[in-house]
Amino acid sequence: MNSTESNEIERRIELLSRFVTERRLERLRLVAAARTGRITLVLEDVCNAFNATAVTRTCEGLGIHEMHIVENEHRFQLSPGVTQGAAKWLDMRRWRESGGGNTERCIDALHERGFRVVATSPHKAGYTPDSLPLDRPVAIIFGHEKSGVSERAVERSDNTLRIPMYGFVESFNITVSAGMCMSRLRTRLQEERPADAPFPAAFQRELVAKWLEWSVPRKVLESLDAAGSGE
């Protein structure tokens, strides 16, 4: 980001902050400061709207800013009554080109950005949420409620991850699994690499500016934009 763009964002924040309370503005700044891009989650062909929604809400609550939605066989849907608006605060990237291959495209894009991509599987001896290295950003793939992640996801990933089980059942529901993994990884990130966890200050300001726009009434925002353009 150059100085002109940075100054424009600061000007936008200053302008829009006049239309929210100090408490609201402080809340936006605190949440932006707690967001992380070091952990991201990939949902591959999750078909149950309640599960998709619950996982989305969990990610937002843990400050995980980015999610990837892979749609090869099933369309991703959210249940509005469950998210309580959580989805709008996240960067949700959808991979849904016709003809398939979305899993590969998603994983390849994450690799290009330096992520260690890890597919969850209760059947393979891989890392656990306690042992997975956090020396670089990680992307955790969760799959279809019944069949799990696809073989192509496992083959293209760097590693696998499992949750240790101590009972007769072999796996947890996806909402429980995602919650357990994301919570443990986020806690470890804060404890082991606290300097790496937050986004750069410039990106935090971008988030605050964007969230302020969502917090200001639409009519007020349109009026400000019209005045700024000289209309």
3D structure, described in words:
It is built from nine helices and six strands; from the N terminus they run ααβαβαβαββαβααα. With 231 residues, it is of the alpha/beta class. It has one domain (34-222): Alpha/beta knot (3-Layer(aba) Sandwich), CATH 3.40.1280.10. Strand 1 (39-44), helix 3 (49-61) and strand 2 (66-70) form a beta-alpha-beta unit. The radius of gyration is 19 Å and the shape is globular.
Keyphrases for this structure?
Alpha/beta knot; 9 helices; alpha/beta; 231 residues; 13% strand; six-stranded parallel β-sheet; single chain
The count of strands amounts to 6
Count of discrete alpha- or pi-helical segments spanning 4 or more residues: 9
Distance between the termini: 28 Å
Could you name the CATH topology? Alpha/beta knot
| Major sheet summary line | 6 strands, parallel
Low-confidence spans:
none
Helical residues, percent: 40-55%
- Report the structural category: alpha/beta
Indicate the radius of gyration in whole angstroms: 19 Å
Strand content: 5-15%
Task: Give the overall silhouette.
Answer: globular
The SSE string, one letter per element, is HHEHEHEHEEHEHHH
Per CATH, the class reads: Alpha Beta
Query: By CATH's scheme, which homologous superfamily applies?
Result: SPOUT methyltransferase, trefoil knot domain
